[in-house]
TrEMBL record:
Xref: Pfam families: Iso_dh
Binding site for NAD(+): 77-90, 290-302
Subcellular location: Cytoplasm
The name this protein goes by in its record: 3-isopropylmalate dehydrogenase
Pathway: Amino-acid biosynthesis; L-leucine biosynthesis; L-leucine from 3-methyl-2-oxobutanoate: step 3/4
Lineage: Bacteria, Pseudomonadati, Pseudomonadota, Alphaproteobacteria, Hyphomicrobiales
Cofactor: Mg(2+); Mn(2+)
Residue span, Isopropylmalate dehydrogenase-like domain: 5-361
Length: 365
C-alpha cells in the first residue's frame, strides 16, 4: 500500500482551527482511499517563537525536508508585533520557501456556482471560472541585487530594487506551466512587460523556446502584464494557466482571488524542482488567507481553503487525482446544499461552525 508522510504546521490564529478539519479529511482518506497517511504536527510562527525563540527550528526544517508534503496553516498576529525582525512569525514561512527551494507558486481561482453572487463581478463573468495563476516565487525584483537605500552627496536618498531572471529560472517555471496546462485545458498565457523591461524580453524568449522544443502540443499566448490584468477582470474565463514573474504574480493572483468571492475559499501550492533520482518535488500547501486574529478562537473560521489545499497535495504531490476530485466535489456539494460558514453567509442566513463545515465535507465525501 502506498504511504506518505505529511508534516502539519498549523501555526497561529485560525491556523490550528482549520488544520483540525484537514486532519478530519486525512483520517477519512487514510481509512477509505487505499493510501496510508502518516502525519506529524509541529510548531511554526508565533507559536514556535513562544516556545523556542525562533519562528521555525532546525529540527522542524529537517522534518520538512524529509516529508512528502508540508501542510501549512497560517502565521502571525498582533501578539508578536514587537518581536525582532529575524524571528518574526513570517520568517518561518520564508525559511521553508527558501530552504525547500519552492520556486513555483500555484494559485487556482475557482468560482463555485453556489457562490457566484459573492464575486465583485457579474455572475456570468465568473460562474464556472477555473483558472490557475502560476507565480515565480524565488526570483525577480523581490530578491535581485543590488537592493538598497543609499544617501546621495546632496542628502537625497536613492532606493534600488533589481529585477533579475536567468534562463534557468524562467525555463523551470515555464515547464511547470506547460505540465499543468497539459493536465487541464492545454493553454498557457505568459505575462511580462517586454516593451519596457529587459527581463521581460528574456522571459518571452525563454518561454517561447521551451514551448517550441518540449511542449508544442500546448497552446501558448503572450500578453503584456498590464493588458493581462485588464483581461483578467474583463473576461477571466479566456484563461487556463497564467504564468508570470514574482511581482506581477503577486498582484495578479490577488486580483484573481477577488474574482471568486471569499478569502476563506482559496488554496495554494508551492512546488520545488523534481528530485533527479525520484522525480518527486518538495511541496508546501497552504490557504491564501492569513491567521485572521480577529476571528481566532471563535470556531467560526472557514476551513475550505485549508481543505482545498490538501486537495491540491493529493493532486500534485501524490498523483491522487480522483481523491482530489472527491474533495473538490464534496466542497461544491456542501456549498450547493446551502451550508455556509459566517464569512459566506448572507445577512440573516444561518451559519455553521468551522467543525460543522469540516464534518459536512467529510460526510459529502
Ligand atoms: P496576513 O498578513 O497573514 O495575510 P491579514 O490579517 O492580512 O493576514 P487574513 O488573516 O488573511 O489577512 O484575513 C483578513 C480577514 O479576512 C480576516 O480578518 C478575517 O476576517 C477574514 N478571513 C480570512 N480568512 C478567513 C477564513 N478562513 N474564514 C473566515 N474569515 C476569514
Ligand atoms: Mg494579508
Amino acid at each position: 500500500m502506498a504511504s506518505y508522510n505529511l508534516l502539519l504546521l498549523p501555526g497561529d490564529g485560525i491556523g490550528p482551527e482549520v488544520m483540525a478539519e484537514v486532519e478530519r479529511v486525512i483520517r477519512w482518506l487514510d481509512a477509505n482511499s487505499g493510501v496510508h497517511f502518516e502525519t506529524e504536527t509541529d510548531l511554526v510562527g508565533g507559536s514556535a517563537y513562544d516556545v523556542h525563540g525562533v519562528a521555525i527550528t532546525d529540527e522542524t526544517m529537517k522534518t520538512a525536508m524529509a516529508a512528502d508534503a508540508v501542510i501549512f496553516g497560517a502565521v502571525g498576529g498582533p501578539k508578536w508585533d514587537a518581536v525582532p525582525y529575524e524571528v518574526r512569525p513570517e520568517a518561518g514561512l520564508l525559511r521553508l520557501r527558501k530552504d525547500l527551494e519552492l520556486f513555483a507558486n500555484l494559485r487556482p481561482a475557482i468560482c463555485y456556482p453556489a457562490l457566484a453572487d459573492a464575486s465583485s463581478l457579474k455572475r456570468e463573468v465568473v460562474e464556472g471560472l477555473d483558472i490557475l495563476i502560476l507565480r515565480e516565487l524565488t526570483g525577480g525584483v523581490y530578491f535581485g541585487e543590488p537592493k538598497e537605500i543609499v544617501t546621495l552627496e546632496n542628502g537625497e536618498k536613492r532606493a534600488v530594487d533589481t529585477q533579475v531572471y536567468t534562463t534557468h529560472e524562467i525555463e523551470r517555471i515555464a515547464r511547470v506551466a506547460f505540465e499543468l496546462a497539459r493536465a487541464r485545458r492545454n493553454k498557457v498565457t505568459s505575462m511580462e512587460k517586454r516593451n519596457v523591461m529587459r527581463s521581460g524580453v528574456l522571459w518571452n524568449q525563454v518561454v517561447t523556446a521551451v514551448h517550441k522544443a518540449e511542449y508544442p502540443d500546448v497552446q501558448l499566448e503572450h500578453m503584456l502584464a498590464d493588458a493581462g490584468g485588464m483581461q483578467l477582470v474583463r473576461w477571466p474565463k479566456q484563461f487556463d494557466v497564467i504564468v508570470t514573474d514574482n511581482l506581477f504574480g503577486d498582484m495578479l493572483s490577488d486580483v484573481a482571488a477577488m474574482l471568486t468571492g471569499s478569502l476563506g475559499m482559496l488554496p495554494s501550492a508551492s512546488l520545488g524542482a523534481p528530485d533527479p533520482a525520484t522525480g518527486k518535488r518538495k511541496a508546501l500547501y497552504e490557504p491564501v488567507h492569513g491567521s485572521a486574529p480577529d476571528i481566532a478562537g471563535k470556531g467560526i473560521a472557514n476551513p475550505i481553503a485549508m481543505i482545498a489545499s490538501l486537495g491540491m497535495a493529493l493532486r500534485y504531490s501524490f498523483d491522487m487525482g480522483e481523491a482530489a476530485d472527491l474533495v473538490d466535489g464534496a466542497i461544491a456539494d456542501v456549498l450547493a446544499s446551502g451550508t455556509r460558514t459566517a464569512d459566506l453567509a448572507a445577512k440573516g442566513q444561518n451559519s455553521v461552525s468551522t467543525r460543522e463545515m469540516g464534518e459536512a465535507i467529510v460526510k459529502a465525501m
